[in-house]
Amino acid sequence: MSKKIELINLFKEFKNRYETVQAQVAEVQRNVAYTEIGREQAVKQLLDGFAPTVQLYHDKAIAAIDQGLEGLAERWKKGSTGKLFDAGYQAGLSNVVKMLEIGAVTEKEDVQNIIDTYMGDYSTLSLIKAVLIKSENIALKDCSLLIPADNREYNRRLLGQLRDNVDQSMNIYTFNKGLASVSMSMDSFVQFVTDRLGDNLELIA
């Protein structure tokens, strides 16, 4: 199971369990058979019983995000610095840079193929972009726009924000904020993960 699916499932499951307990609390509060003290005790018992479940989902979601971040960091490292001592890789890159510098490659499709070959190697893509920008060939200079932005830091920041939001929303202290507040937070988390993140939690451009 991908980290993306894992997070989506956790948020949806937590929302369902949260709403179930909230409905039980509401039922106790409406029940006229309880005395005021009895009602407070019954609600406390429900909340106390739910606390371990909240902690469980909180810890699982935080762990999934942390593992996703660690996986991305390792992937990004292998994609760039992991190739520094690969003689064949570096020789090929040297040839590509030379071809671009002398204008041996001018077709947009060919440049795109080169970019696709080095996708994920942010250091190399940065080098190729610098070469393209310096080119006197207008067509090659324009091809620099084909290189996607290095959004690794933005990716880290967004996942860090998601982690902080999970920490604030999936805990027993937010339980009394009301059904809409926590439920809406879970819906928001699911929407964000669905729309903005790939299977390994890499940001979708």
What does the model show?
This protein has 205 residues and is an all-alpha fold. The protein has helices spanning 3-30, 36-79, 87-101, 108-117, 122-134, 138-143, 152-169, 179-196. α1 (3-30) packs antiparallel against α8 (179-196). The radius of gyration is 26 Å and the shape is rod-shaped. 20% of the residues are buried. The model has no long low-confidence stretch (mean pLDDT 91).
List keywords for this structure.
single chain, 205 residues, mainly alpha, 8 helices, 74% helix
List the helices and strands and how they pair.
Elements: H1 3-30, H2 36-79, H3 87-101, H4 108-117, H5 122-134, H6 138-143, H7 152-169, H8 179-196
Helix pairs in contact: 1-2, 1-8, 2-7, 3-5, 7-8
